[in-house]
Amino acid sequence: IQPGERLIVSLSGGIDSMSLFCLLHSFSKQMALDLHLVHFNHGLREESLEEEDFLRDLANQKGVPITVFSSTSLKGTSGIQQKARDWRNDCLIEVLKEQKFDKIALGHHLDDLVETQIWRMLRGASLFSLNPIQESSPPYIRPLLRFRKQDLENYLLSINQEWCQDRSNFENDYTRNIIRNQLIPVMEEQAGGRLVDKMLALNDDAYQLKLDFENQVPAATIESEELGYQSILSLSPVFAKELIHRFLLHHGQTEITRTQIEDIHKLVKLNQGNWQIGLKQDKIITGRDKTVFISQRSDV
Fold first, then answer.
1. d(CA 262, CA 16)
2. Strand pairing of 226-228 and 275-278?
3. Does pLDDT of 300 surpass 50?
4. What is the dihedral of CA 78, 84, 87, 91, to 10 degrees?
5. Exposed, middle or buried by CB within 10 Å (0-12, 13-18, 19+), for 5?
6. DSSP summary character for residue 135
7. CB 56 within 8 A of CB 68
8. pLDDT at position 254, please?
9. Residue 144 · residue 19 · CB < 8 Å
């Protein structure tokens, strides 16, 4: 964060985002920061309107403008968590562009990082995925990523600042809540109280692995319309599979399984041609003439 920057703060009202806002506000005069709050009323809980009023009052007291987005279309839909994330991101980018802000500040903290690491492990993700949340991924910044949630709670208590408590966080209806409420306490005990330190070390190792990959594999290779077999075979197996993964991501594939990546890598290693593997969105990945490319099913 640089002096004079215009920052959007995504404010749910919970401990994390409330701490973020209070900290930024405490530095705003010293650093000439222009803050703007954005709150999302998902319309999913009885207390949503009460929380919205509380945050509007807080913004008024602090002299900071606030924009509130409300939705009535999320309740009862499937994949609600992902849909809510997509909706929030779209709204934040809209405000950023329309009002020419510099960055969007999010309240992710160290406990969020550990939860996401464990969630990805359970889904069979790769070593690269153990660095799941970035402190900076423009236009987003996460200044609190190295702080424990308990530290943030202690901070709010020390300045006598109230926050909103989302009771759904204590219900084990979602995998993330089960990880947070049941799995992590057991792992913390078995790790001698140093689980977070150990997971943070894995995060940093995964980050270094990403840097090494990006230094070795040009972005142009990932962004090309096709991958030559040699560009895959010239890499170590770990990097080769990551290249395949990023190639698929770049071409719009977000639901990629480890089995698909393993199968593609195996076929390339065997120098096989004229093969196809089905992907989501009615697409296929094809190996032909020692190249790999993605197309619509009807195109091949």
1. 38
2. unpaired
3. no
4. 170
5. middle
6. S
7. yes
8. 85
9. yes
Query: Measured between alpha carbons, how far apart are the two ends of the chain, in Å?
Result: 49
DSSP bridge pairs for 284: 278, 295
Contact (Cβ atoms closer than 8 angstroms) between residue 286 and residue 298: no
CB 8 within 8 A of CB 36: yes
Query: Mean pLDDT throughout 283-290?
Result: 95
Q: What is the largest CA-CA distance in the chain?
A: 67
Over residues 77-115, the pLDDT tens digits come to: 677 888 889 999 999 999 999 999 999 999 999 999 999
User: Locate tokens 């920057």: which residue?
Assistant: 5
CA distance 249 to 293: 13
Element (H, E) at 275: strand 275-278
Mean pLDDT (whole number) for 115-134: 93
Tokens of 289: 């003439």
CB atoms within 10 A of CB 109: 25
Residue 168 has pLDDT above 70, yes or no: no
3-state secondary structure of 158: helix
Phi and psi at 170, nearest 5°, equal -95, 0
Residue whose token pair is 């690269």: 128
* 281, HSE (Cβ side, Cα atoms, 13 Å): 12
Q: Please state, in angstroms and rounded to a whole number, the distance separating the CA atoms of residues 254 and 265.
A: 18
The Cα 261–Cα 50 span in angstroms is 47
Look up residue 179 and give its two tokens. 């990880």
What pTM was estimated for this model as a whole? 0.88
Q: Which amino acid is at 150?
A: Q
Any residues with CB less than 8 A from the CB of 151 and at least 6 apart, and which? Answer: none
